[in-house]
Amino acid sequence: MSYYETWTNRSETVENEDAYKAYISRYYQVEKEAYDMILSKYPDNKDLLSGKAIDMAKTLGFDTEKEMEVFVGFLEGVASSLKKEIDYKSVEDDTDISLDIDYEKLYFNMHEAKASWLYELKSWENILDAEKRLEITRQYRDSIIAHSEKIGRNDPCPCGSGKKYKKCCGKNA
């Protein structure tokens, strides 16, 4: 079974609630530490973002004897924020990996994932100033606001009569 299949199976299947919670908690913990390391060393973090999968996992704090599938889960999580796609589904120990992260997109995606433990990391200050982080947060919030094209009863009628919709075209609707 590949690391990706193991990751998918263990992260989506709940046979034992306590074991599942411990597994996911461990993932969140090591994910946070890995992102903090990557963000803290920016812009001198190239050594953390490329190399053999096993070496990268070890450098980023993943237990390579027991958690390589968790590292692949990390790769799956960061994949949507990369400038160049990677095939995280077929990663093996000796797979060469190069992560070219779009940090603004990563920050946005962390909001989308509701991962406050990640987008609230102090190390973001090394990459995005407070104004830029606020702008991205606003973009995220704007993207989730529900918009409706429905005409309200008290809105002006779209026919251009100047009357309220309820007194014009909406009278018989």
What's the gist of this structure?
With 173 residues, this protein is mostly helical. It is built from 8 helices and 2 strands, in the order αααβααβααα. The protein has helices spanning 3-12, 17-40, 46-49, 53-59, 68-79, 103-112, 116-119, 130-144, and strands at residues 50-52, 96-98.
What is the gyration radius calculated from CA atoms? 23 Å
Q: DSSP helix count?
A: 8
Tally of strands? 2
The proportion of strand residues reads under 5%
Layout of SSEs?
Blueprint: H1 3-12, H2 17-40, H3 46-49, E1 50-52, H4 53-59, H5 68-79, E2 96-98, H6 103-112, H7 116-119, H8 130-144
Antiparallel strand pairs: 1-2
Helix pairs in contact: 1-5, 6-8
Structural write-up:
With about 170 residues, this protein is mainly alpha-helical. The protein has eight helices and two strands. The chain has helices spanning about 5-10, 15-40, 45-50, 55-60, 70-80, 105-110, 115-120, 130-145, and strands at about 50, 95-100. It has a two-stranded antiparallel sheet with strand order 1-2. The protein is elongated, with a radius of gyration of 23 Å. The N and C termini lie far apart (about 60 Å). About 20% of the residues are buried.
